[in-house]
């Protein structure tokens, strides 16, 4: 450690100098982006297949799936928005009826 750097850092820096250029050129290549796009498509396909299968299994067991819960939350949020709107309208009617007295 005469130059102030720990041994592990010296090794990491030497490794980075050795393979850094090769890795950088690889991740900027068309082949890398093609591979990345294909991996994303494969991931999406696997995710959709898994979600579809789990949804069917849950429905067979008469249990709600994630899509059912999401739909229910959206409906509940709509009901809450409508309730707030009606409360504001009722408050406005009460205020105008008190002002008339």
Any overview of this molecule?
- It contains three helices and no strands.
- The protein is elongated, with a radius of gyration of 30 Å.
- The chain folds into two domains: 29-63; 64-101.
- With 101 residues, it is mainly α.
- The mean pLDDT is 92.
- The chain has helices spanning 7-27, 30-60, 66-100.
- DSSP E strands, number: 0
The number of helical runs is 3
Give the H and E element order: HHH
Biggest sheet details? none
Roughly what percent helix?
over 70%
Shape: elongated
What would the average pLDDT be, to the nearest integer?
Answer: 92
Could you tell me how far the N terminus lies from the C terminus, measured between alpha carbons in angstroms?
89 Å
Q: How many domains make up the 3D coordinates?
A: 2
- Provide the gyration radius in Å: 30 Å
The secondary-structure class comes to mainly alpha
């Amino acid at each position: 450690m005469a130059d102030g750097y720990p041994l592990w850092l010296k090794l990491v820096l030497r490794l980075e100098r050795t393979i850094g250029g090769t890795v950088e050129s690889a991740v900027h290549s068309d082949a890398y982006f093609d591979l990345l796009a294909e991996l994303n498509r494969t991931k999406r396909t696997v995710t959709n297949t898994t979600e579809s299968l789990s949804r069917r299994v849950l429905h067979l067991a008469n249990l709600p799936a994630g899509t059912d819960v999401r739909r229910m939350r959206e409906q509940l949020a709509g009901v809450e928005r409508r309730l707030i709107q009606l409360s504001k309208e009722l408050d406005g009617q009460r205020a105008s009826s008190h002002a008339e007295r």
